[in-house]
Design goal:
Layout: E1 10-13, H1 18-32, E2 35-39, H2 42-55, E3 59-61, H3 65-71, E4 79-83, H4 84-90, E5 95-103, H5 110-119, E6 123-124, E7 132-136, E8 139-143, E9 149-155, E10 158-164, E11 167-169, E12 171-177, E13 186-187, E14 190-191, H6 197-203, E15 208-210, H7 217-223, E16 229-231, E17 241-244, E18 247-249, H8 255-264, E19 269-273, H9 276-285, E20 292-295, E21 309-312, E22 315-318, H10 320-328, H11 336-343, E23 351-354, E24 358-370, E25 373-381, E26 387-391, E27 398-400, H12 416-435, H13 439-444, H14 454-462, H15 470-484, E28 490-495, H16 501-514, E29 518-522, H17 526-539, E30 547-550, H18 556-568, E31 573-576, E32 590-596, H19 603-612, E33 617-622, H20 630-635, E34 639-643, E35 654-659, H21 662-674, E36 678-682, H22 689-699, E37 705-708, H23 714-725, E38 731-734, E39 747-752, H24 760-767, E40 778-783, H25 790-801, H26 808-819, H27 827-836, H28 838-857, E41 867-869, H29 884-894, H30 900-911, H31 921-936, E42 941-947, E43 950-955, H32 960-970, E44 977-980, E45 983-987, H33 994-1006
Parallel strand pairs: 1-17, 2-4, 2-15, 3-4, 6-7, 15-16, 19-20, 19-22, 28-33, 28-34, 29-31, 29-32, 30-31, 32-33, 35-40, 36-38, 36-39, 37-38, 39-40, 41-42
Antiparallel strand pairs: 5-12, 7-8, 8-9, 9-10, 10-11, 13-14, 18-21, 21-22, 23-24, 23-27, 24-25, 25-26, 42-43, 43-45, 44-45
Helix pairs in contact: 1-2, 11-28, 12-28, 14-16, 15-16, 25-26, 27-28, 31-33
């Protein structure tokens, strides 16, 4: 069955990914003819172009006002689209009488200028968009309509210089924009009266589809009247017919699930992939049948961004994200700081930090030709227009700057950065030593080593009614490894709400119980403790272990019995609140403490937990993506496991942004009540919360509303939450106290009022309160102002963009970017993080901690990245990537490769579409360099370079003699000579060119001799 046909005046939800949308558009084009789509950015336009080519859709991107008129005279079935940026650039401009005059040497404070630019129609934009401005340290750039770029250099509040299109001037006028959507009166043969864009679109009855324009003034213009358009994004405020496209995600985690799905749906699956040969062979070998296997041409990793698979009625569509995940790609083993660094994607115009040269602005990737050798460089602009060109293969030396809003750009000349880094290195060592205070104690303290009985563990796990996600399985393996070691475990499990942290904790508990040790699970809330208790009773019912609960809800007599049972050992596991931290509590043999949402406990309780921790295994659970204890996780004192994979059957929460509208609230509420559900309404001001209670009671006169907030006595607050959980009320009107991990499986609609006042992580936590069962969850973000702008708009747009399951970690990173990294760490750490950026700070802290550990254990520090500087063209062709950002991210990811296995997986993924296994010279060279870098670490090699008439290999100053001897023993041709204790040299005349030289070095690192030499070919 095919996809639905889009219709005007209709709002569609569950649109899925860009791939899904293009499939919908293709079907609409075939039946309805051409239509126009307005999209929010050039980047999305690029994705549509790539996918339209792959899916055989006739398309045309509009770039001018003439194009807008021409598309109304369409013939045939063509998808037209235009970005808001192009609309702003091409439409007619008229000047107001008002203008801003700027002169060299005059005072015009930067903030005042930016406010003035906003007033006359200019938007702040991170990229170079016409009709916008950008601030970079002491530089303000103004991008005027028509392409003129004005650059203002400030010294304090004074304009030091003005540069217009590269030429210095003394004075410039910035004129106001009347209406950025104005169309010329005469276009081609058409004359239009009062021609704003919306009038043209209506006059010509062009069928419009909006996509993600809800934060742009254009949205307000086009939705003000009933125009001929459909919405396929998250625009809940439209008073239109609302319907679902019926596109759903298919959960396929491995090859077995893939095969089962095809067997259960024979002949109804379409596979879109660039690995058609591999898929067809697999289907043939396993006697499987699908409707079609469609070859796609584009080779970029991001061509099917965030899509696993899509199902529409009786037809399923599977694309390369699934294929790569289950057949090809393996997640590279990365440290936590590397995970964070990669999530902070670097884009043109971003502030970046070079570890050796400081803070600059990333201007993009450029190519330079030296003789016959072409190399790619990252261009970084520093103070006084100085530029640094960093080889793209050394991208690991760069980090995205996340800290204060407008950092000062570092001068390349002088020693400003060197002095700053010297001080920061000293401070970071002090911080690292402080974090590692307990490390030596833990290392030499005898832990509670556990013995794992595989049969009993498997029997327990087999009773879990669901399949463990890969992340759950990995976390459980990590925990079992910790608990079987001689050291005490201290592990943090971080995962979105509903991602299975409790089941992981129960696995830890069963191992401790099987080793005759007691287990305690402590929760910050009574209702949450009872929820865990009910789950534990069900989970451990077929085991011989006794589970009890202890909170204020138990009678004194019952509590006394529990305390006696813990002391005698008749109770094996107890679940409760801070009452379990009492001084009178005695244990027979406590072996494991599980702490749920540790950061929610008070200071006194945290100290008690800290004191108990000293000689038992500790497992902490948190739904907060980046807790303040991140620095402990980085230090190695506390290990961390991240859960990013959603459980099978969970659905993404449909998220809507709308101005406060009682009709929308009533409609959405009645829809929830019709399916027997309950509602959350979050209002975070206690002062007027009663006002909203009256409004909700008026909207839903037959429903009961109960209020909860943090100013209620603790007992009363929890009683009210428990009453709501037990369905005594229909609507819970609450402040953010409900963001704790209580499971309300019957609540699947949440309204968050005044959403612009919440942080990203906070909204994400609140949104996670719904959709915990197999029912579809809905989140409505309400605002009262005419519009949301500035930082609040960025936050809300980020929440909408990251609505998919498992987005918590990515959201935390975006939150860092928007708000800076000040509250991620302690006070002292925050100061240093602001100076050099959170990403570089975490990287340096992690390395310093590793250095201190190596010193304590008397082990040799391994080289992080060997620098190779040779005349060699190495890189990936541009047509592999969707964008410069995609390309840069790829290079940053391959820099994280730490072993040959990771490299082999990358080769498989990269060259799968080369049928003959032969690749171009540049790409071959890149993988030769990568393999050399990986193997060079084992030899303590820091540099391989050409110096005059010699090739030179530099070893690190410590632990080099053994490594150098091992390397020389393999140099049977005696091409290298020792020049000093850390250096080898070989004359360049012994090698025909640099590639022959590096191939020779690689063979030595591989342990091969000269006689084994053969051409390196990369095969699938």
């Amino acid at each position: 069955m095919s996809f639905e046909i889009l219709k005007p005046h209709t709002q569609y939800t569950q649109a899925g990914s860009y791939f899904s949308k293009l499939l919908v558009y293709k079907n609409t084009l075939e039946t309805q003819g051409s239509f126009l789509q307005i999209i929010p950015s050039f980047d999305i336009s690029k994705k549509y172009e790539v996918l339209a080519q792959d899916l055989g859709i006739s398309y045309k991107e509009l770039e001018s006002a003439e194009d807008i008129i021409a598309c109304s005279q369409r013939i045939g079935s063509t998808l037209f689209w235009i970005s808001i940026d192009d609309v702003k650039k091409e439409v007619h401009q008229k000047l107001f009488d008002s203008q801003i005059t700027l002169q060299t040497g005059k005072s015009y404070p930067q903030l005042s200028l930016m406010e003035g630019l906003q007033e006359i129609g200019y938007d702040y934009h991170e990229y170079e968009k016409q009709g916008s401005y950008l601030r970079q340290g002491d530089i303000i750039k103004i991008f005027q309509i028509g392409g003129q770029v004005t650059l203002l250099n400030y010294w304090g509040d004074e304009i030091e210089s003005i540069v217009v299109d590269g030429n210095k001037v003394e004075q410039v006028y910035i004129s106001s924009l009347e209406n950025i959507f104005k169309i010329p009166d005469q276009i081609g043969k058409k004359t239009i009266k009062n021609p704003i864009l919306s009038d043209i679109l209506v006059q010509d009855e062009i069928f419009l589809v909006l996509d993600g324009c809800e934060f742009h003034p254009l949205f307000e213009k086009l939705t003000h009247k009933k125009y001929q358009f459909a919405s396929i994004s998250l625009l809940a405020s439209l008073e239109q017919k609302k319907t679902k496209l019926g596109i759903g995600d298919i959960s396929i985690q491995n090859v077995e699930e893939f095969q089962n799905y095809i067997e259960q749906n024979p002949g109804s699956i379409s596979i879109y992939s660039r690995y058609t040969k591999m898929i067809e062979e697999y289907l043939k070998d396993n006697s499987l049948s699908v409707a079609e296997v469609v070859a796609i041409k584009h080779t970029g990793f991001s061509s099917f961004e965030k899509i696993s698979a899509q199902k529409n009625n009786n037809r399923s569509y599977i694309s390369d994200d699934i294929i790569q995940k289950i057949f090809i790609r393996k997640r590279l083993k990365k440290k936590l700081s590397a995970d964070i660094d990669l999530l902070l994607k670097i884009q043109k115009g971003d502030f970046v930090v070079h570890i050796d040269h400081g803070i600059g602005v990333f201007n993009g990737i450029i190519k330079k030709v030296l003789g016959e050798i072409q190399k790619e460089y990252l261009e970084i602009q520093y103070k006084d227009q100085d530029k640094l060109f960093v080889p793209i293969t050394e991208v690991h030396r760069l980090s995205k700057y996340v800290g204060k809003e407008n950092p000062s750009i570092t001068p390349l000349s002088g020693k400003v950065w060197e002095r700053k880094m010297k001080k920061i290195h000293e401070d970071i060592r002090e911080i690292a030593e402080e974090l590692l205070k307990n490390f030596a104690e833990r290392k030499f303290r005898s832990g509670n080593q556990n013995i794992l009985n595989q049969d009993k563990i498997e029997a327990f796990q087999s009773e879990f009614p669901y399949t463990y996600t890969p992340d759950q399985a990995n976390a459980i393996d990590d925990i079992f490894s910790d608990m079987q070691s001689t050291k005490n475990m201290d592990r943090l499990i971080v995962g979105d709400v509903g991602f299975g942290k409790t089941e992981i904790a129960f696995n830890a508990a069963i191992l401790a119980l099987q080793n005759r040790k007691q287990v305690v699970l402590i929760s910050p809330l009574v209702v949450l403790a009872h929820e865990h208790y009910n789950k534990a009773i069900e989970r451990f019912k077929n085991t011989p272990y006794t589970v009890e609960v202890l909170t204020r809800l138990q009678s004194q007599a019952h509590a006394t019995q529990v305390l006696k049972g813990l002391q005698s050992g008749s109770i094996d596991m107890v679940i409760g609140t801070h009452r379990l931290l009492g001084d009178k509590l005695k244990w027979k043999k406590l072996g494991l403490m599980i702490v749920d949402e540790e950061h929610k406990f008070g200071v006194v309780d945290k100290e008690k937990i800290k004191n108990i921790k000293s000689d038992i295994d500790i497992l902490s659970l948190s739904a907060t993506p980046i807790p303040r204890s991140l620095n402990l996780a980085l230090s190695g004192v506390r290990d961390i496991s991240l859960l990013k994979t959603p459980p099978k059957g969970r659905k993404s929460i449909e998220t809507f942004v709308t101005r406060y509208n009682e009709k929308i609230i009533k409609d959405a509420g009645e829809q929830e009540f019709k399916r027997g559900g309950q509602i959350f309404f979050v209002h975070n001001r206690v002062s007027n919360i009663e006002v909203y209670k009256k409004q909700l009671e008026a909207l839903f006169p037959k429903r009961k509303v109960i209020i909860t907030h943090g100013q209620l006595p603790g007992d009363e607050l929890e009683d009210r939450i428990l009453d709501f959980k037990n369905k005594k009320y229909d609507i819970l009107l609450s402040t953010t106290v409900i963001e704790n991990g209580i499971d309300f499986s019957n609540v699947n609609t949440i309204f968050i009022n005044e959403c612009q006042s919440f942080g990203i992580s906070q909204i994400h936590q609140l949104r996670g309160r719904v959709g915990r069962s197999d029912a579809q969850g809905y989140c409505y973000l309400l605002y009262h102002k005419d519009s949301i702008d500035g930082e609040a708009a960025k936050r809300i747009k980020t929440i909408v963009d990251y609505s998919y399951l498992g987005a918590g970690f990515e959201l935390a990173m975006k939150d860092l970017e928007i708000r800076g990294g000040g509250d991620i760490l302690g006070v002292k750490q925050s100061g240093q993080a602001q100076e050099i950026g959170v990403s570089l700070f975490l990287k340096m802290l992690e390395e310093k901690i590793e250095d201190i550990k190596n010193e304590a254990e008397n082990t040799i520090k391994k080289v992080k990245n060997c620098q190779i500087d040779l005349m060699l063209s190495a890189g990936i062709h541009d047509n592999f990537f969707l964008s410069e950002t995609d390309k840069l991210h790829f290079y940053r990811e391959i820099e994280q490769i730490e072993d040959i296995d990771d490299l082999e997986y990358l080769k498989q993924s990269f060259f799968q579409n080369n049928e003959d296994g032969v690749v171009d010279t540049q790409t071959e060279n890149l993988f030769i360099l990568l393999e050399t870098q990986v193997l060079a670490r084992e030899y303590c090699i820091e540099n391989i370079k050409r110096v005059g008439i010699n090739y030179q290999i530099d070893f690190q100053s410590t632990g080099n003699l053994t490594a150098m001897k091992k390397f020389l023993n393999r140099d049977t041709a005696v091409k290298f000579q020792v020049t000093d204790a850390t250096r080898l040299r070989s004359p360049t005349k012994l090698f025909e060119n640099d590639k022959i030289f590096i191939e020779y070095v690689l063979r030595l690192l591989q342990g091969k001799t000269l006689e084994e030499r053969k051409k390196i070919r990369l095969k699938r």
